[in-house]
């Protein structure tokens, strides 16, 4: 799913249509805030230490939902979330 999401951007770079594509910091922070809020309700947030979270309680996962949700999110490259030059 991630490759399907990224492929349009990769092709633009390969063809020379754009020189650079970078996630906007605000988009990254918003995604991480939402992700950490969702992860806080999972078993990974339990009161024990594990490799699922850092010493300061951050859970460095890339997804907190089910595979169907992930597939929906990966359906279209979100150009609004990226700086494209």
Topology:
Elements: H1 2-15, E1 21-23, H2 25-39, H3 67-73, E2 82-84
Antiparallel strand pairs: 1-2
Any overview of this molecule?
- With 85 residues, this protein is mainly alpha-helical.
- Helix content is 42%, strand content 7%.
- It is built from 3 helices and 2 strands.
- The protein has helices spanning 2-15, 25-39, 67-73, and strands at 21-23, 82-84.
- It has a two-stranded antiparallel sheet with strand order 1-2.
- The longest helix is centred in the middle third of the chain and has 15 residues, at 25-39.
- The chain starts with a helix and ends with a strand.
- The relative contact order is 0.24.
Looking across the biggest beta sheet, what order are the strands in?
1-2
- Oligomerization status of the protein chains: single chain
Distance between the termini: 25 Å
Q: Specify the helix fraction band.
A: 40-55%
What does the radius of gyration come to?
16 Å
Per DSSP E runs of 2 or more residues, the count of β-strands stands at 2
Comma- or semicolon-separated keywords:
mainly alpha; two-stranded antiparallel ribbon; 3 helices; 85 residues
